[in-house]
Amino acid sequence: MQVSVETTSGLERQVTITVPAARIDQDVNKQVQQQARSRRLDGFRPGKVPTSVIKRMFGKSIRSDVLSQVVQETFYQAVDQEKLMPAGTPNIQFNKDVEGEDLEYVATFEVYPEIALADFSGAEIEKLSADITDADLDEMINTLRKQQGDWEAVERAAVEGDRLNIDFEGFIDGEAFDGGKAEAMDLVLGSGSMIPGFETGLVGVSSGDETELNVTFPEDYHAENLKGKATVFKVKVNSVSAQKLPELNEEFFARFGIEETSVDGFRSEVKKNMARELKHALKTKLKDQVFSQLTELNQIDIPAALIDREIDVLRRQAVQQFGGPDAKIDPNMLPKDMFTDQAKRRVSVGLLMQELIKVNKIEPSDEKVRATVEEMAETYQDPQEVIDYYYGNQEILNQIKGLVLEEQVVEHLLETAKVIEKQVSYEEAIKPAQRGEAAE
């Protein structure tokens, strides 16, 4: 077998492989003889079909199967011989495929980039910390009460927090526009679900009122034809409702799966959940910062095949997230551009992490794996049952080991970076990262 390698551009390689005719003929003849013994054809006794008949009737099919197997075997032999690391499936083109002559084909594919890790000591990382105050706890419990609250119609002027049921229609330069009309729509004042000025303009209205709102669509509004447009909305108020919050009692506590009977016990459980959420949020933001710095310091070429593969993963995740497990949506219908930047970042981080793990010989700590499993299990009624299940399921345990390994990579990088401690409020700490800082 002869092999030659050409770098066509960046990470792309063209490998030309020549396989001796004798190798092809030998495999073809072997297949012909096997089929002569096993095939049943009319007019011939079992096992007595002449090889010439098999060749005449099935020769092309047999040769095609042989070539497929030979290409697969010789391709991996060639990349191993040349010490290449293909990223994705190769594109195979036959240069020469003539019976009785040497086979020549070209495999075109991308390779993984060679990575020389940059010094991370120049990175500046802001490490956030936060406490949960009584005011934070009160706000969270109030939010839980609002989630379970009932709405009751009131005969008074609307205030922020009230829910209105409205009909409305929008006009630009006196003309109604598509998408600017709704009937019997519920709107909570202060929710921020409408454009600026719409909700504030309805504070003070009462059931049965009709009013006009003069507002302007934001310059960054998603619909091109409405960006920056001055608009008049004619609104009819069908009803005004105020929310009645549930009492803090056993019935309310049970809605959240909490068996506590006292207010103090309930507050304690809520605070524990807030602490878990806070810990996760702080860890995620720290990790995002570390990975952002890592990718900035290490600008690497990324194989397009890996980006496409990651886009497919993100598409499927989006469908499951918004459509549920039974969603009948083709993930490929989602625009590729929606996920390209996130896919590039995730692939880049993944490649850099692999190199860090290899260079620094980082392995998941058994103690950290155990601690992570126990932390996950403590939210369940029978933690030990969950722990036993995790350790009895190798697939799940490997996923947890992957998470631990990721955390250990972050810890390794933080040891050399300049870390700046910053105290923030609970609300700021749990606020999602800005778009573009997607968590891995």
TrEMBL record:
GO molecular function, one term: protein folding chaperone
Residue span, PPIase FKBP-type domain: 161-229
PROSITE patterns: FKBP_PPIASE (PS50059)
EC number, UniProt record: 5.2.1.8
Keyword Nucleus: no
Family to which the UniProt record says this protein belongs: Belongs to the FKBP-type PPIase family. Tig subfamily.
Functional note: Involved in protein export. Acts as a chaperone by maintaining the newly synthesized protein in an open conformation. Functions as a peptidyl-prolyl cis-trans isomerase.
UniProt-listed NCBIfam families: tig
Name of this chain's protein: Trigger factor
